Amino acid sequence: MKARDNINERVLNLFSRLFINIELLKDRELNKEDQNKIKNFDSVNEYIKQFKQSNEFNNEIKFDDNEISKAILKYLNPSTAYRNYKTELNRIFDKILDFSEKNNYYWHNCSIKVYENHFHNIKESYFKHFPREDYINFLEYECNFQFNPRNTEDHIYQTDIPDYFLHLNYHEFLNGKNRQVISSNRVKKIHFLKLKLEKEGYVAEHTNNGIRINKKNILNPTEKESNVEVPLKLKDIPEFDNLERFELIKKLKIDNLIHNLDASQRSKYKVLALIMGIHPDNARKLLTNKYPKLKSNEEINVLIKEAKKNVEHFLNNPINNIKIP
């Protein structure tokens, strides 16, 4: 119990720091034309009072007045305040990701490892709210939450330590690296759920309104013998991110063909950008092993290792049975 309380207290501390920076950034957005205006202590405090009154966790959240004052006074230069608040917010976001991984804390942007550790509890929480639903209904519900994680109004899960960050609107202030981490984690969770569905004889189909679950279309023996080709759909293609798609290109040795082109480096970046449908600068970073832009080579290597694993799973899946010569 003491360990649980300690984790809860540390999570709440991270929450309050993130919330303060969000409110300061919102104020700079509203008043960026007035370079002399910066939110004062009382108005931030008023935001926090209003938030605490309307938030379901109001009995647990304790905002440190000194922390608020320090956050404001730290960046009083109007010309750099917005940039500094944004940098600080992303630094706090990094800390939340790191804390979640080290302490197995579940929140909606956690890694696939933490998500898998909490999967049973998430399922049990779902059935407490919907006792008449079945396992397939749960997987469909969870697929749709991961497909559109910002739609938090109907989110019903209750984990041991609450996801305090669920209703905070910080996404617009995240940098490219943190957006990539969120996207990559979401894709991995959807892939994990799709594998669960496949074991139950179902497939997940993407629609304009979300993800729909259907029974697998299994060919009868006559159709198998006549080698009837079933039309492919978007749902048959894994949701690879840029790193995973580039790992597939490397597996097929297409990157070697691009490197060996009789062309300038800029032209090579353009060729890869066209093949992958991405920004030329991201193509440049991929070809020069600088994607995504992270703090250390260790972090990049972890993501590359995970991307290779997902590509291998796709190639070796019996449904695909792809053998590279």
Fold blueprint:
Blueprint: H1 2-30, H2 41-54, H3 65-74, H4 78-103, H5 112-129, H6 135-147, H7 176-199, E1 202-207, E2 210-215, H8 221-225, H9 242-251, H10 254-259, H11 265-276, H12 280-287, H13 297-316
Antiparallel strand pairs: 1-2
What does this structure look like?
With 325 residues, this protein is mainly alpha-helical. The protein folds into three domains: 1-103, no CATH class; 106-238, no CATH class; 240-325, no CATH class. The chain has helices at residues 2-30, 41-54, 65-74, 78-103, 112-129, 135-147, 176-199, 221-225, 242-251, 254-259, 265-276, 280-287, 297-316, and strands at 202-207, 210-215. The termini are far apart. Mean pLDDT is 76; it is low at 29-41 and 221-226.
Short description:
The chain has 325 residues and is mainly alpha-helical.
Task: Give me some keywords for this one.
325 residues; mainly alpha; two-stranded antiparallel sheet; 2 strands
| Structural domain count | 3
Assembly type:
single chain
Residues in β-strands, percent: under 5%
Helix content: 55-70%
End-to-end CA span? 56 Å
Order of helices and strands: HHHHHHHEEHHHHHH
Topology, number of strands: 2
Please state the overall shape, judged from the principal axes of the Cα atoms: globular
